[in-house]
Amino acid sequence: MKLELTGKQFRRLLDMAYIGNWILNSTRGEDRFADYDEVESLLFQKAKDLGMTALTDTWMGVAVPSQAFAEGGIHEAIMEYENNVFFDILAEDLARRDMDDVPIDESNYQELTERIDAYIAEFDAHGTDNILVETDES
């Protein structure tokens, strides 16, 4: 296969490959999807071959993203995504809990979205500052 990219497009492809591999593998420990690591490595080896040496390190004979690449802002983008997803999932989970986890259909979908929107507005205004968890002190 042959793919023609500008240097800027290739750099964006490196970002996308890194982000995708991070999402798939960062929490898997030793049970990683090796085929995604392999594709990422191929792309970072190509980056090294193209003279983008600051973006690539070698670890155990394999091309990997360099520390400079990882610290160059890509994790801020990942953290922003994770933060947004966290609040979206939390808002929906709380809204469904408030509705006693009934199945959602057209008769109650509007109620669900209103509850989600209310939680999102709260999180936008206060983050998690107003979330309290009651515990049994036995």
Describe the structure.
The chain is mainly α and 138 residues long. The chain folds into 2 domains: 7-65, no CATH class; 73-126. The protein is 62% helix and 6% strand. It has 4 helices and 2 strands. The protein has helices at 7-25, 34-49, 67-98, 109-126; strands at residues 56-59, 62-65. The chain has a two-stranded antiparallel sheet. A hairpin with a 2-residue loop joins strand 1 and strand 2. Helix 1 runs antiparallel to helix 2 (34-49) and helix 3 (67-98) packs across helix 4. The longest helix is centred in the middle third of the chain and has 32 residues, at 67-98. It starts with 6 loop residues before the first helix and ends in a 12-residue tail after the last helix. The mean pLDDT is 95.
Number of domains: 2
Task: Specify the structural class.
Answer: mainly alpha
Order of helices and strands: HHEEHH
Distance between the termini: 65 Å
Give the tally of β-strands: 2
How would you sum up the global shape?
A: elongated
Give a quick rundown of the structure.
The protein has four helices and two strands; from the N terminus they run H-H-E-E-H-H.
